[in-house]
């Protein structure tokens, strides 16, 4: 045995290790492939050996080869073997290899489940760590499901090293197994406050990642994150949180308001550029979300823009890039503030870094206005000429078009200029965006009627110079513009100056080298052109010329008939026959032009791109139903060989009967419509036939003809767009002049001139009238279009599965699958293991089903309330804090403000409260209280913001409580349900107990801790001696003797509230629990450990939950006879009945069902579902309370408590 | 000699991404910004390449919009400094011959595409502890192998030192976008 070992290690000396392999590969540069295949053979031999060290070495080498791109999936099983080695050294090698080459499709991956589970629970933290790291790379849905629970446990591991890895990997688990998110979330949330910064940062990381995808579910965490943001010093965590807030603010604008201040502070204070940048980014996001109705944030915008300018001006290219990136975000909502930095951005266009230039281009897009468009585009055109790489040039080209066409050509004042820009762009070589230019040309020509004449002349020129453009069709896409040119010339042929020349240009033999779809358009539009020429000639009675042109067509068209492209061939042959027929008619001297032109009568209207989608499906039309039964396979063969001859035959037969030519024409028109429908180019045709025959509005829309006169438009060759810039300036000048003249007719010319000079600079956008009064035809939509824009979200989005409401309480069924008995055997048969898991799963629900359903109904209701409550909490946090911030309270713990007792303000709120009440009472009714509270709360919070006053929260509660009972408007003294728990020189504790709506045996104790000393209180721990009946719920793993840490520290003078949950078995008796609060007092002299004992009193009242009840339900309840009865009488009551009811409602959680004079019925419910009904009668000096309750003990205890309350009055 | 860290893509795409990335990154000037807009290859416009250039080495990270750009640059710096500490004056050859170690260090910083730890001291402590563990496991049995490798390494100077191809380490945080 020993000998074997020695032999093994001696063998190993001669095996190649990783270093040898690397060296070998480097020495065999010429025949690398051969060398590697040789190595792989060696590795295969090594893998066959028993020695795990040899195997690990082999796997290590394989990992390297995998990195070089060689397939090593064949060794997956060996990798698993190495993973299961007992030594960490080998295990690590195995996991590394697995993380590199395993993926979801690897079938052996399911063999690893048990191995990984074993490693996760290994006593060696590095075994666990390496397993977690590996798992994070190859986790599959199955692995995630089976291991989720194990990883959950690791999240509370004692070692932070493991905790942070476990927390981080949960994200991967959530992605693969979304069901685990809800059960795991509470613990994940806990980890946000983990003492170890690494774990904390991991938790922040995971939650940020989750929240980025589905932010709305994480809004309720905002207060927690806010706290972290103001307390954390780790920049990495801060950046994450700030980024998260950036994602949250669009959903909750009030959050943004809260954020602005701390963020601006950070911006001013931080030295880390990365943090500064992210702060600016989030402030921008906030501003975007606030953009409506928050006028006074211009300071923040200015700050951002200013900081960004510093970034952009920095010599560090990275900062410059990011600055531009952020700037483009501001641009969307506050273009004005960015426009002032135009100089800087134009400067960036000259940067040698392409990324920066691209960013600057993006910015330019938003910066254009009517005034500067020409200037900017001119600059861009210069860049187009200078640009070297085609990618950048293409980018420039698309940007120019984007900039000009944005917002329905909003910024274009002179379309002639734009057309000439487009024409200039056609001279670019090797661009891929020919189709873009073509689309623009078409769009402008169709939609801007006034420009057609000019457009047609330019297009005719393009067609004339087609040889320049089409010279090397193969490698550039610019010939696409010919498509547009041909169509425009054809469709608007009436505007052509020399149609004959254009027609000839289109009939050139060179055209046949163009791509098929362009030729097809050529052919089609030749006929349009021909038709218009024909009409012209006939009108001027030049019969010879007309026949000549027909002959020309007949001569040239055959070259298209021979085309290999089906579309071209079909169109050409069809048209050729048509023209031959026309020729026949011409020889008979029949005027044909009118009929030919009728082929193309009608106006094409642009249609909105979504129009087709929005046409509602008519009732009774089933689009999925077969119109005809699908033909059998044998039929389809017959359809194939439909050739031209077939068509021609038909046509010939029609030629023999010329008397039906009208019909023929009509049919052709139909056919043409059909063709148009099929031709993508014709998409813009109108779907509603009645609009087809609209007349073109006259050309009188063009107001400014005088400039056009000054410079001849028919510039020989291609015009320069630059001219237009000058022209435009002149034109504006003139306009200005005219305006000025009108205004100041009485003034003398000299003064006018002087003024003009000034006004040039102050000219605003509105003053610039466009050169062409273009009625940009709005795109048509079907009349009964569906208005809603449905979001087309990708249903396969993996993050969608994680869109889970985390505020809902956990249902019983939502538990992670736990494996109870671990299979000790080696994982030879994975199927065996799978089965029990599934069985367990299916059994569980069955057992619980019945119970579950019953509970479910009740829970549904409760859940809703719960949700409401949560929402309110957040609302409250959001609405209360700004007022606090404005009074410059320490922003450290903003949630404190809600419970801070501020003596100075005490008087004021009272008064304010009364006023509020007066308002409220007018519209009060005893029903639907809940909703009202909410509204009122909101109203009040608004009021508060205005008056910038603070209100004690208990008073607010009190208002609610009063509303339960009050019907008349009597002022009430303030009440607080918080009573003293214990107090010493350092700290004062007050508490309140509330039943938990969600669980029938839980109550929540809210304790307010107020630091009365000048020292810093920390490490507070609250412990209670559990009784048999009542137990404090402690974090998992803690023993009954451990205290529960208070999740905050208290600076001097500050108070904060913490909540503790207790489980109660029986609620019919009041209880007292002894407890201790231990804490550390820290001041300049040092720190001391202090204790404070207290007694926590659980009254029966605290188990009651205010539940509204209708009188009929109340009556039924009393009639049922299931309730036992008891009564008390208290003498010496002096306060009004009104106040009395309010007190009972507030302190004992009742609601008023009905009130008649000095008699009222009240109702409440315990957390365990006991009904409690009261009849309260007031005599001269006494009050009698008759109670009915499902439990006699509970009732008598309750009445005793009530007696005490009443006796105080 | 590229060290890569990619999961979830077939071998071909992986190699293609590396080639493309190297091509993109290596032709950039020294004084341009360190970010590259994501092409289709690296999973759409949400993703960015962020790189740093050290002598003959490029460290390239591919990140999506949830990461802070400047933060990642810092992270690369931390990574390089960590390498420097772990290898004691790291040089290119260290990375080439000890790819496995580089991976292990990286695993302590980035896990499954998410940043795990940014504190260098913490990382180094963990790496050292793991190395110690490894050494204790190797014990006597490992001695001969170490001796052999020492002998083998004596040939090192013969290896051409001037290699132009950098070390490209690509990690893809948020892998799902790659499916």
Main-sheet strand order of chain B equals 1-2-3
Helix content of chain B: 40-55%
Q: Judging from the principal axes of the Cα atoms, what is the shape of chain A?
A: extended
Count of DSSP H/I helices of chain A: 48
Secondary structure tally, helices of chain B = 6
- Interface with most residues: A-B, 81 and 61 residues
Nearest-integer average pLDDT of chain B: 66
Helical content band of chain A? 55-70%
| Radius of gyration of chain A using CA atoms only | 42 Å
End-to-end CA span of chain A = 93 Å
**Helix-strand sequence of chain B:** HEEEHHHEEHH
What oligomeric state do these chains adopt? heterodimer
Query: Structural class of the helices, strands and pairings of chain A?
Result: alpha+beta
Unreliable residue runs of chain B: 1-12, 147-179
CATH architectural arrangement of the largest domain in chain B: 2-Layer Sandwich
Keywords (chain B): Cytoplasmic vesicle, Golgi apparatus, Membrane, Protein transport, Transport
Pfam family, one (chain B): Clat_adaptor_s
InterPro entries (chain B): AP_complex_ssu, AP_mu_sigma_su, APS3, Clathrin_sm-chain_CS, Longin-like_dom_sf
Family (chain B): Belongs to the adaptor complexes small subunit family.
If you had to describe this structure to a student in words, what would you say it looks like?
- The complex is a heterodimer of chains A (about 1200) and B (about 180).
- Chain A is an alpha+beta fold and about 1200 residues long.
- In chain A, strands 10, 11, 12, 13, 14 and 15 form a six-stranded antiparallel beta sheet that branches.
- Among the domains of chain A are: about 430-600; about 980-1100, Gamma-adaptin ear (GAE) domain (Immunoglobulin-like, Sandwich); about 1105-1205, TATA-Binding Protein.
- Chain A starts with a helix and ends with a helix.
- Chain A contains 48 helices and 15 strands.
- Chain B has about 180 residues and is an alpha+beta fold.
- Chain B has six helices and five strands, in the order H-E-E-E-H-H-H-E-E-H-H.
- Chain B has helices at about 10-25, 70-85, 90-95, 100-110, 120-140, 145-155, and strands at about 35, 50-55, 55-65, 110, 115.
- In chain B, the strands form two sheets. Chain B has a three-stranded antiparallel beta sheet, with helices on both faces. Chain B has a two-stranded antiparallel sheet with strand order 4-5.
- In chain B, helix 2 packs parallel to helix 5 and helix 4 (about 100-110) crosses helix 5.
- The longest helix of chain B has 19 residues, at about 70-85.
- The radius of gyration of chain B is 17 Å and the shape is globular.
- Residues about 1-10 and about 145-179 of chain B have low confidence and may be disordered.
- The chains are: A alpha+beta (about 1200), B alpha+beta (about 180).
- Chains A and B meet through helix 1, helix 2, helix 4, helix 6 and helix 8 of A and helix 1, strand 1, helix 2, helix 4 and strand 5 of B.
């Amino acid at each position: 045995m020993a000998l074997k070992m020695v032999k093994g290690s001696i063998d190993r000396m001669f095996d190649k290790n990783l270093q040898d392999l690397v060296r070998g590969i480097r020495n065999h540069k010429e025949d690398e492939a051969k060398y590697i295949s040789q190595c792989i053979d060696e590795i295969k031999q090594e893998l066959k050996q028993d020695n795990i060290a040899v195997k690990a070495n082999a796997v290590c080498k394989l990992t390297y080869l995998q990195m070089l791109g060689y397939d090593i999936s064949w060794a997956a099983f060996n990798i698993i073997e190495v993973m299961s080695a007992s030594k960490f050294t080998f295990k690590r090698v195995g996991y590394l290899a697995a993380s590199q080459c395993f993926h979801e499709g690897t079938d052996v991956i399911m063999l690893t489940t048990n191995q990984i589970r074993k490693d996760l629970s290994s006593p060696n933290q590095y075994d666990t760590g390496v397993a977690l790291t590996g798992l994070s790379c190859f986790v599959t849905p199955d692995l995630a499901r089976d291991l989720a629970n194990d990883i959950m446990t690791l999240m509370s591991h004692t070692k932070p090293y493991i905790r942070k890895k476990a927390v981080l990997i949960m994200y991967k688990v959530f992605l693969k197994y979304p069901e685990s998110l809800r059960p795991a979330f509470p613990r994940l949330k806990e980890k946000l406050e983990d003492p170890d910064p690494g774990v904390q940062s991991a938790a922040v990381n995971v939650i940020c990642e989750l929240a980025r995808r589905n932010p709305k579910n994480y809004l309720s965490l905002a207060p927690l994150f806010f706290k972290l943001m103001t307390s954390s010093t780790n920049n990495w965590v801060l950046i994450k949180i700030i980024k998260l807030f950036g994602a949250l603010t669009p959903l909750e604008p009030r959050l943004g308001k809260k954020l602005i201040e701390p963020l601006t502070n950070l911006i001013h204070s931080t030295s880390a550029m990365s943090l500064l940048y992210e702060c600016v980014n989030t402030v921008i996001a906030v501003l975007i979300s606030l953009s409506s109705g928050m006028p006074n944030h211009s300071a923040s915008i200015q700050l951002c823009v200013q900081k960004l300018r510093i970034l952009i001006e920095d010599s560090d290219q990275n900062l410059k890039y990011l600055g531009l990136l952020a700037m483009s975000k501001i641009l969307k909502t506050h273009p004005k503030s960015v426009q002032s930095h135009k100089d800087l951005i134009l400067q960036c266009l000259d940067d040698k870094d392409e990324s920066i230039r691209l960013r600057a281009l993006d910015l330019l897009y938003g910066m254009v206005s009517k005034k500067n468009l020409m200037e900017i585009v001119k600059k861009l055109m210069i860049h187009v000429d200078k640009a070297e790489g085609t990618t950048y040039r293409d980018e420039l080209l698309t940007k120019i078009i984007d900039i000009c066409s944005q917002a329905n050509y909003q910024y274009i004042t002179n379309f002639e200029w734009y057309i000439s820009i487009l024409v200039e762009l056609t001279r670019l070589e090797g661009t891929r965006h020919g189709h873009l230019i073509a689309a623009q040309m078409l769009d402008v020509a169709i939609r801007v009627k006034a420009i057609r004449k000019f457009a047609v002349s330019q297009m005719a020129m393009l067609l004339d110079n087609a040889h320049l453009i089409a010279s090397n069709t193969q490698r550039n896409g610019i010939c696409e513009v010919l498509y547009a040119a041909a169509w425009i010339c054809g469709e608007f042929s009436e505007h052509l100056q020399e149609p004959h020349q254009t027609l000839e240009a289109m009939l050139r033999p060179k055209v046949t080298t163009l791509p098929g779809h362009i030729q097809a358009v050529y052919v089609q539009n030749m006929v349009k052109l021909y038709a218009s020429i024909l009409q012209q000639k006939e009108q001027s009675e030049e019969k010879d010329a007309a026949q000549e042109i027909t002959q020309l067509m007949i001569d040239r068209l055959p070259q298209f008939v021979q085309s290999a492209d089906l579309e071209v061939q079909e169109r050409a042959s069809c048209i050729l026959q048509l023209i031959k027929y026309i020729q026949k008619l011409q020889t008979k001297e029949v005027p044909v032009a009118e009929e030919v032109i009728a082929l193309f009568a009608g106006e094409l209207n642009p249609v909105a791109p979504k129009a087709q989608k929005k046409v509602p499906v008519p009732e009774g039309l089933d689009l999925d139903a077969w119109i005809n039964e699908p033909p059998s396979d044998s039929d389809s063969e017959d359809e194939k060989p439909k050739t031209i001859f077939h068509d021609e035959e038909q046509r010939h037969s029609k030629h023999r009967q010329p008397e039906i030519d009208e019909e023929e024409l009509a049919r052709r028109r139909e056919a043409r419509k059909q063709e148009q429908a099929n031709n993508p180019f014709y998409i813009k045709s109108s779907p509603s036939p009645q609009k087809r025959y609209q007349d073109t509005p006259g050309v009188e829309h063009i107001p400014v003809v005088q400039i056009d006169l000054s410079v001849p438009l028919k510039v020989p060759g291609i015009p320069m767009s630059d001219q237009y810039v000058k022209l435009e300036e002149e034109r504006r000048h003139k306009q200005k002049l005219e305006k000025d003249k009108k205004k100041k007719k009485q003034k003398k010319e000299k003064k006018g001139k002087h003024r003009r000079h000034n006004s040039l600079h102050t000219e605003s956008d509105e003053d610039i009238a466009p050169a062409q009064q273009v009625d940009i035809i709005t795109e048509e939509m079907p009349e009964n279009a569906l208005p809603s824009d449905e979001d087309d979200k990708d249903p396969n989005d993996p993050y969608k599965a994680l869109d889970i409401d985390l505020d809902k309480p956990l249902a019983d069924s939502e538990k992670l699958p736990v494996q109870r008995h671990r299979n000790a055997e080696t994982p030879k048969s994975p199927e065996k293991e799978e089965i029990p898991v599934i069985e367990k799963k299916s059994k569980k629900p069955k057992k619980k089903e019945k119970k579950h359903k019953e509970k479910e109904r009740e829970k549904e209701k409760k859940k809703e309330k719960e949700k409401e409550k949560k929402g309110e909490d957040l609302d409250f946090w959001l609405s209360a804090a700004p007022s606090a911030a404005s009074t410059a309270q320490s922003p450290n713990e903003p949630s404190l403000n809600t419970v801070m007792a501020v003596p100075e303000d005490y008087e004021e709120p009272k008064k304010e409260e009364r006023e509020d009440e007066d308002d409220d009472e007018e519209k009060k009714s005893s029903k639907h209280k809940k909703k009202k509270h909410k509204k009122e709360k909101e109203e009040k919070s608004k009021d508060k913001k205005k008056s910038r006053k603070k209100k004690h929260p208990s008073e607010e509660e009190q208002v609610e409580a009063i509303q339960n009972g009050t019907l008349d408007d009597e002022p009430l003294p303030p009440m607080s349900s918080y009573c003293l728990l214990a107090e010493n020189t350092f700290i004062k504790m007050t508490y309140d107990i509330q039943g938990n709506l969600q669980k029938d045996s839980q109550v929540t104790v809210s304790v307010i801790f107020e630091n009365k000393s000048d020292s810093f209180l920390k490490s507070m721990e609250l412990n209670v001696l559990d009784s048999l009946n009542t137990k404090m719920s402690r974090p998992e793993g803690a023993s009954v003797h451990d205290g529960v840490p208070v999740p905050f520290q208290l600076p001097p003078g500050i108070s904060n509230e913490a909540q503790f949950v207790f489980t109660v078995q029986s609620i019919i008796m009041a209880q007292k629990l002894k407890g201790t609060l231990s804490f550390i007092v820290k001041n300049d002299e040092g720190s001391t450990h202090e204790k404070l004992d207290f007694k926590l009193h659980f009254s029966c009242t605290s188990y009651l939950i205010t539940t509204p009840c209708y009188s009929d339900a109340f009556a039924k309840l009393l009639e049922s006879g299931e309730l036992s009865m008891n009564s008390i009488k208290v003498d010496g009551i002096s306060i009004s009945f009104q106040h009395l009811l309010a007190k009972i409602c507030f302190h004992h959680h009742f609601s008023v069902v009905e009130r008649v004079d000095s008699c009222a019925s009240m109702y409440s419910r315990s957390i365990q579902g006991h009904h409690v009904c009261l009849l309260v009668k007031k005599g001269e000096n006494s009050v009698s309370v008759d109670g009915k309750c499902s439990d006699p003990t509970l009732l008598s205890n309750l009445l005793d408590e009530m007696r005490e309350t009443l006796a105080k009055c | 000699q590229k060290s890569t860290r990619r999961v979830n893509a077939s071998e071909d795409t992986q190699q293609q991404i590396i080639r493309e990335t190297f091509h993109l990154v290596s032709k950039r000037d020294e004084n341009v910004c360190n970010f590259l807009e994501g092409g289709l290859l690296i999973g759409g416009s949400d993703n960015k390449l962020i790189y740093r250039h050290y002598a003959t080495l490029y460290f390239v990270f591919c990140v999506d919009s949830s990461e802070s750009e400047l933060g990642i640059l810092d992270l690369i710096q931390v990574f390089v400094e960590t390498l420097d500490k772990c290898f004691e004056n790291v040089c290119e050859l260290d990375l080439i011959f000890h790819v496995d170690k580089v991976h292990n260090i990286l695993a302590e910083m980035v896990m499954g595409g998410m940043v795990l730890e940014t504190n260098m001291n913490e990382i180094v402590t963990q790496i050292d502890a793991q190395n110690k563990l490894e050494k204790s496991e190797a014990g006597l049995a490992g001695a001969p192998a170490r001796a052999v490798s020492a002998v083998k390494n004596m040939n090192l100077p013969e290896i051409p030192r001037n290699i132009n191809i950098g070390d490209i380490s690509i990690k893809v945080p948020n892998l799902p976008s790659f499916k």
